[in-house]
Amino acid sequence: MPDTLLEKLWNLHEVTDLGGRDSLVHIDRIFLHERTGSIALRGLEQAGCGIRAPRRVFCTMDHIVDTRPGRGDITLVPGGREFIEATRHSARKAGIHLFDIDDSRQGIVHVVAAENGIVLPGMSAVCPDSHTCTLGALGALAWGIGSTEAEHAMATSSLRVSRPRSMRVNFHGETAPGVSAKDMILHLIAKFGSRAGRGYAVEFAGPAIRALSMDGRFTICNMAVEMGAFTGMIAPDESTFAYVRDLSFAPRGPLAQQAQAHWRELRSDDGAEFDRELEVDCAQIAPSVTWGANPEQLADINGVVPEPEAFEDRQKSLAARQALAYMDLEPGTPLRSIRIDAAFIGSCTNNRIDDLRTAANYLRNRKKAPWVQAMCVPGSSAVKRLAEAEGLDEIFRAAGFEWREAGCSLCFHAGGESFGGRRVISSTNRNFQGRQGPGARTHLGSPLTVAASACRGYISAAEDSR
Amino acid sequence: MNLQTQIFHRGIAATLLQPNIDTDAIIPSREIQRVSKEGLGEALFSGWRYRSAENREPEPDFILNQDPYQGASILLAGDNFGCGSSREHAVWALKDFGVKAILAPSFGGIFFNNCALNGILAIELEENSIQRLAEWVRIDPRGNLLEIDLTAQRIRWREGKEIKFDIEPARRSLLLDGLDGIAATLRHEAAIAAFEDADRDRRPWVYEFPDG
Question: Could you give the CA distance from residue A225 to residue A219 in angstroms, rounded to a whole number?
Answer without folding.
Answer: 11
